[in-house]
Specification:
Layout (H helix, E strand, L loop, with lengths): L12 H20 L5 E7 L2 E7 L4 H8 L3 H27 L3 E9 L4 E8 L9
Antiparallel strand pairs: 1-2, 2-4, 3-4
Length: 128
């Protein structure tokens, strides 16, 4: 059946995890040139973890494959740092909580990255 949801109702569970995954892919695509082909969010108490796969650019893969993995990882770390504020701006309204900090890392082989969002106890913003 169809369920009508109030527009201010907070997403929870699977739909929230899916919305977070989509948001991370979209932000990465906008700022890096391509987004990961797979992303999955895990929600556990004050921690949200998003695992992204197959997100390296052609340039990063070229660096990896020609013996320059440190440069590829440094590039990706800088990109992760550059998009953190944007990720937090997009995430806080979805979860209605404040993000205290973001930790991220990337591996080249396999191409797997992770973003960990550590949440605070208080609400992020009040719309009224």
């Amino acid at each position: 059946g169809t369920m009508s949801a109030d527009s201010s109702e907070q997403l929870k569970g699977g739909p929230l995890a899916a919305a977070i995954s989509t948001m991370v892919v979209t932000v990465l695509a906008e700022h890096v040139g391509r987004g990961p082909t797979k992303a999955r969010a895990y929600l556990h108490d004050e921690l949200i973890t998003v695992v992204v796969r197959d997100g390296l650019t052609v340039g990063e893969l070229t660096l990896r494959d020609t013996g320059r993995p440190d440069t590829a990882l440094a590039s990706r770390a800088a990109l992760h740092a550059a998009v953190q504020d944007r990720l937090v701006e997009e995430l806080e309204p979805l979860i209605e909580q404040r993000v205290v900090t973001v930790l991220s890392d990337q591996r080249l082989d396999p191409d797997v990255g992770v973003f960990c969002f550590v949440l605070g106890q208080e609400a992020a913003t009040t719309t009224n």
